[in-house]
Amino acid sequence: MSASPTKGMVLAAGLGTRMRPLTNTRPKPLISVAGRTLLDRALDWMADAGVEDVVVNTHYLAPQIEDHLRIRTQPRIILSSEADQLLETGGGILRALPYLGEAPFVSANSDTICLDGPTPAIARLAKHWDDEEMDALLLLHPVEKAVGYEGRGDFFLGENGELTRRGDAPSAPFVFTGVQLLHPRLFENAPAGPFSMNLLYDIEPGRIKGLVHDGNWLHVGDPQGLQDAENWLASH
Protein backbone atom coordinates (compact mmCIF):
# COMPACT_ATOMS: atom_id res chain seq x y z
CA MET A 1 0.00 0.00 0.00
CA SER A 2 1.23 3.47 -0.80
CA ALA A 3 -0.36 4.99 2.30
CA SER A 4 -1.68 3.87 5.66
CA PRO A 5 -5.37 2.96 5.77
CA THR A 6 -7.87 5.67 6.66
CA LYS A 7 -10.61 3.27 7.76
CA GLY A 8 -10.60 0.81 10.62
CA MET A 9 -12.63 -1.26 13.02
CA VAL A 10 -12.39 -1.93 16.74
CA LEU A 11 -14.11 -5.12 17.89
CA ALA A 12 -16.02 -4.24 21.06
CA ALA A 13 -19.09 -6.49 21.09
CA GLY A 14 -17.84 -9.38 23.24
CA LEU A 15 -19.36 -10.50 26.53
CA GLY A 16 -16.12 -10.17 28.52
CA THR A 17 -16.80 -13.35 30.47
CA ARG A 18 -13.16 -13.91 31.44
CA MET A 19 -13.02 -10.43 32.98
CA ARG A 20 -15.85 -11.09 35.43
CA PRO A 21 -16.78 -9.79 37.96
CA LEU A 22 -15.50 -6.49 36.50
CA THR A 23 -17.74 -6.92 33.46
CA ASN A 24 -20.92 -7.70 35.37
CA THR A 25 -22.01 -4.07 35.10
CA ARG A 26 -19.85 -2.60 32.31
CA PRO A 27 -18.59 -3.81 28.95
CA LYS A 28 -14.98 -4.91 28.81
CA PRO A 29 -13.89 -2.16 26.36
CA LEU A 30 -14.80 0.44 29.02
CA ILE A 31 -12.52 -1.04 31.65
CA SER A 32 -9.75 1.43 32.41
CA VAL A 33 -6.06 0.58 32.33
CA ALA A 34 -3.82 3.20 33.92
CA GLY A 35 -6.57 5.80 33.72
CA ARG A 36 -7.72 5.28 30.12
CA THR A 37 -10.31 2.83 28.84
CA LEU A 38 -9.25 0.00 26.58
CA LEU A 39 -11.58 1.33 23.89
CA ASP A 40 -10.14 4.84 24.01
CA ARG A 41 -6.62 3.48 23.91
CA ALA A 42 -7.43 1.55 20.71
CA LEU A 43 -9.16 4.54 19.12
CA ASP A 44 -6.35 6.95 20.10
CA TRP A 45 -3.84 4.54 18.61
CA MET A 46 -5.71 4.38 15.32
CA ALA A 47 -6.22 8.14 15.16
CA ASP A 48 -2.52 8.74 15.80
CA ALA A 49 -1.74 6.50 12.80
CA GLY A 50 -4.01 8.51 10.48
CA VAL A 51 -7.12 6.36 10.60
CA GLU A 52 -10.02 8.78 10.11
CA ASP A 53 -13.14 6.59 10.30
CA VAL A 54 -13.52 3.71 12.74
CA VAL A 55 -16.41 1.28 13.08
CA VAL A 56 -17.06 0.06 16.63
CA ASN A 57 -19.37 -2.94 16.93
CA THR A 58 -21.56 -3.29 20.01
CA HIS A 59 -23.66 -5.95 21.69
CA TYR A 60 -23.13 -6.41 25.44
CA LEU A 61 -24.23 -3.32 27.42
CA ALA A 62 -24.14 -1.42 24.14
CA PRO A 63 -25.77 1.79 25.46
CA GLN A 64 -22.78 2.35 27.74
CA ILE A 65 -20.39 2.23 24.78
CA GLU A 66 -22.66 4.46 22.71
CA ASP A 67 -22.84 7.05 25.51
CA HIS A 68 -19.09 6.91 26.06
CA LEU A 69 -18.30 7.51 22.39
CA ARG A 70 -20.64 10.49 21.93
CA ILE A 71 -17.97 12.97 23.00
CA ARG A 72 -15.27 11.68 20.66
CA THR A 73 -14.48 13.68 17.53
CA GLN A 74 -11.36 11.82 16.33
CA PRO A 75 -11.50 9.39 14.76
CA ARG A 76 -15.05 9.63 13.41
CA ILE A 77 -17.04 6.79 14.98
CA ILE A 78 -19.57 4.60 13.20
CA LEU A 79 -21.51 2.22 15.43
CA SER A 80 -22.40 -1.24 14.14
CA SER A 81 -25.03 -2.80 16.35
CA GLU A 82 -25.21 -6.53 16.97
CA ALA A 83 -28.16 -6.21 19.33
CA ASP A 84 -30.02 -8.93 17.46
CA GLN A 85 -27.19 -11.47 17.52
CA LEU A 86 -23.55 -11.55 18.59
CA LEU A 87 -21.72 -12.18 15.34
CA GLU A 88 -18.20 -13.11 16.54
CA THR A 89 -15.09 -11.63 14.92
CA GLY A 90 -15.79 -12.56 11.31
CA GLY A 91 -19.51 -11.89 11.30
CA GLY A 92 -18.99 -8.59 13.07
CA ILE A 93 -16.53 -7.34 10.47
CA LEU A 94 -18.71 -8.64 7.63
CA ARG A 95 -21.67 -6.59 8.92
CA ALA A 96 -19.46 -3.49 9.09
CA LEU A 97 -18.03 -3.87 5.56
CA PRO A 98 -20.37 -1.27 3.98
CA TYR A 99 -18.67 1.37 6.16
CA LEU A 100 -15.11 0.21 5.49
CA GLY A 101 -14.68 0.99 1.82
CA GLU A 102 -13.03 -1.04 -0.92
CA ALA A 103 -9.37 -0.76 0.15
CA PRO A 104 -7.53 -2.65 2.89
CA PHE A 105 -8.59 -1.50 6.36
CA VAL A 106 -7.18 -2.07 9.83
CA SER A 107 -8.99 -4.12 12.48
CA ALA A 108 -8.09 -4.44 16.16
CA ASN A 109 -9.45 -6.11 19.25
CA SER A 110 -10.44 -3.96 22.21
CA ASP A 111 -8.91 -6.20 24.88
CA THR A 112 -5.28 -5.58 23.97
CA ILE A 113 -2.94 -2.58 24.05
CA CYS A 114 -0.62 -2.25 21.07
CA LEU A 115 2.25 0.16 21.69
CA ASP A 116 4.11 1.28 18.61
CA GLY A 117 7.80 0.74 18.01
CA PRO A 118 9.94 3.19 16.00
CA THR A 119 7.32 3.22 13.21
CA PRO A 120 3.56 3.05 13.90
CA ALA A 121 2.45 -0.57 13.54
CA ILE A 122 -0.36 0.37 11.15
CA ALA A 123 2.12 2.15 8.87
CA ARG A 124 4.41 -0.90 8.99
CA LEU A 125 1.53 -3.19 8.01
CA ALA A 126 0.68 -0.87 5.12
CA LYS A 127 4.30 -0.81 3.97
CA HIS A 128 4.47 -4.61 3.91
CA TRP A 129 1.09 -5.05 2.22
CA ASP A 130 1.23 -6.76 -1.18
CA ASP A 131 -2.12 -6.62 -2.94
CA GLU A 132 -1.10 -9.36 -5.36
CA GLU A 133 -0.09 -11.81 -2.66
CA MET A 134 -2.35 -11.29 0.33
CA ASP A 135 -5.89 -10.78 1.56
CA ALA A 136 -4.90 -10.37 5.21
CA LEU A 137 -1.75 -9.31 7.03
CA LEU A 138 -1.71 -10.23 10.70
CA LEU A 139 0.43 -8.44 13.28
CA LEU A 140 2.20 -11.02 15.43
CA HIS A 141 4.10 -10.69 18.69
CA PRO A 142 6.76 -12.97 20.21
CA VAL A 143 5.11 -14.99 22.97
CA GLU A 144 8.02 -14.50 25.37
CA LYS A 145 7.70 -10.71 25.12
CA ALA A 146 3.92 -10.51 25.50
CA VAL A 147 2.56 -8.94 28.71
CA GLY A 148 -0.44 -10.63 30.32
CA TYR A 149 -0.53 -13.50 27.84
CA GLU A 150 -0.52 -17.06 29.17
CA GLY A 151 -1.29 -18.98 25.99
CA ARG A 152 0.87 -21.30 23.89
CA GLY A 153 1.12 -19.10 20.82
CA ASP A 154 -0.79 -19.21 17.56
CA PHE A 155 1.61 -19.30 14.62
CA PHE A 156 4.97 -20.25 13.20
CA LEU A 157 6.31 -17.68 10.76
CA GLY A 158 8.15 -18.68 7.61
CA GLU A 159 9.83 -16.83 4.80
CA ASN A 160 7.90 -14.03 3.11
CA GLY A 161 5.46 -13.89 5.99
CA GLU A 162 4.08 -17.39 5.48
CA LEU A 163 2.00 -18.55 8.45
CA THR A 164 1.60 -22.04 9.87
CA ARG A 165 -0.81 -22.67 12.72
CA ARG A 166 0.44 -24.20 15.97
CA GLY A 167 -1.70 -27.26 15.34
CA ASP A 168 -0.60 -30.20 17.49
CA ALA A 169 2.70 -28.60 18.48
CA PRO A 170 3.03 -27.89 22.21
CA SER A 171 3.71 -24.24 21.50
CA ALA A 172 4.35 -21.70 18.75
CA PRO A 173 6.64 -18.67 18.96
CA PHE A 174 4.15 -16.00 17.89
CA VAL A 175 0.76 -14.86 19.19
CA PHE A 176 -1.71 -13.00 17.00
CA THR A 177 -2.16 -9.52 18.45
CA GLY A 178 -5.66 -9.01 17.07
CA VAL A 179 -4.35 -6.22 14.83
CA GLN A 180 -4.60 -6.91 11.11
CA LEU A 181 -4.94 -5.37 7.68
CA LEU A 182 -7.82 -6.92 5.78
CA HIS A 183 -8.98 -6.60 2.19
CA PRO A 184 -12.77 -6.66 1.75
CA ARG A 185 -12.43 -9.41 -0.90
CA LEU A 186 -11.52 -11.82 1.91
CA PHE A 187 -15.22 -11.82 2.83
CA GLU A 188 -16.61 -12.56 -0.64
CA ASN A 189 -17.60 -16.14 0.23
CA ALA A 190 -18.21 -15.58 3.93
CA PRO A 191 -21.25 -17.25 5.51
CA ALA A 192 -24.19 -15.38 6.97
CA GLY A 193 -24.48 -15.10 10.72
CA PRO A 194 -21.81 -15.58 13.41
CA PHE A 195 -18.38 -16.93 12.47
CA SER A 196 -14.77 -16.57 13.51
CA MET A 197 -12.14 -14.92 11.33
CA ASN A 198 -10.28 -18.23 11.62
CA LEU A 199 -12.78 -19.67 9.13
CA LEU A 200 -11.65 -17.17 6.48
CA TYR A 201 -7.96 -17.58 7.30
CA ASP A 202 -8.30 -21.29 6.55
CA ILE A 203 -10.06 -20.95 3.17
CA GLU A 204 -6.94 -19.69 1.38
CA PRO A 205 -4.18 -19.83 3.99
CA GLY A 206 -1.49 -18.91 1.46
CA ARG A 207 -2.99 -15.42 1.17
CA ILE A 208 -2.87 -14.80 4.92
CA LYS A 209 0.53 -13.41 5.91
CA GLY A 210 2.18 -12.30 9.13
CA LEU A 211 4.42 -9.45 10.30
CA VAL A 212 6.19 -9.33 13.67
CA HIS A 213 5.40 -6.29 15.82
CA ASP A 214 8.45 -4.22 16.79
CA GLY A 215 6.84 -2.49 19.77
CA ASN A 216 5.19 -3.77 22.95
CA TRP A 217 1.92 -5.64 23.30
CA LEU A 218 -0.25 -6.12 26.37
CA HIS A 219 -3.05 -8.67 26.53
CA VAL A 220 -5.81 -7.58 28.90
CA GLY A 221 -7.97 -10.68 28.88
CA ASP A 222 -8.80 -11.23 32.55
CA PRO A 223 -8.31 -9.54 35.94
CA GLN A 224 -4.74 -10.85 36.19
CA GLY A 225 -3.96 -9.53 32.71
CA LEU A 226 -5.39 -6.18 33.77
CA GLN A 227 -3.11 -6.11 36.79
CA ASP A 228 -0.12 -7.13 34.69
CA ALA A 229 -0.86 -4.31 32.24
CA GLU A 230 -1.24 -1.77 35.05
CA ASN A 231 2.08 -2.86 36.56
CA TRP A 232 3.89 -2.80 33.21
CA LEU A 233 2.61 0.64 32.26
CA ALA A 234 3.51 2.01 35.70
CA SER A 235 7.08 0.74 35.36
CA HIS A 236 7.56 1.97 31.77
Overview of the molecule:
- By secondary structure, this protein is an alpha/beta fold.
- The protein has a single domain, classed as Alpha-Beta Complex (Spore Coat Polysaccharide Biosynthesis Protein SpsA, Chain A).
- It is 24% helix and 26% strand.
- It is built from six helices and 13 strands.
- The protein has helices spanning 38-48, 62-69, 88-96, 121-128, 197-203, 223-235, and strands at 7-11, 32-33, 36-37, 53-58, 76-81, 105-109, 112-115, 136-142, 155-157, 163-165, 174-182, 208-212, 216-219.
- Strands 5-4-1-6-11-8-12 form a seven-stranded mixed sheet, sandwiched between helices. Strands 2-3 form a two-stranded antiparallel ribbon. It has a two-stranded antiparallel sheet with strand order 7-13.
- α3 crosses α5.
- The chain starts with 6 loop residues before the first strand and ends with a helix.
Please provide the ordered H/E string of secondary-structure elements.
Answer: EEEHEHEHEEHEEEEHEEH
Instruction: Report the strand count.
Output: 13
- CATH homologous superfamily designation: Spore Coat Polysaccharide Biosynthesis Protein SpsA, Chain A
* Beta-strand residue fraction: 25-35%
The CATH class is Alpha Beta
Q: Specify the overall morphology.
A: globular
Tally of individual domains: 1
Low-pLDDT residue intervals, each spanning 5 or more residues: none
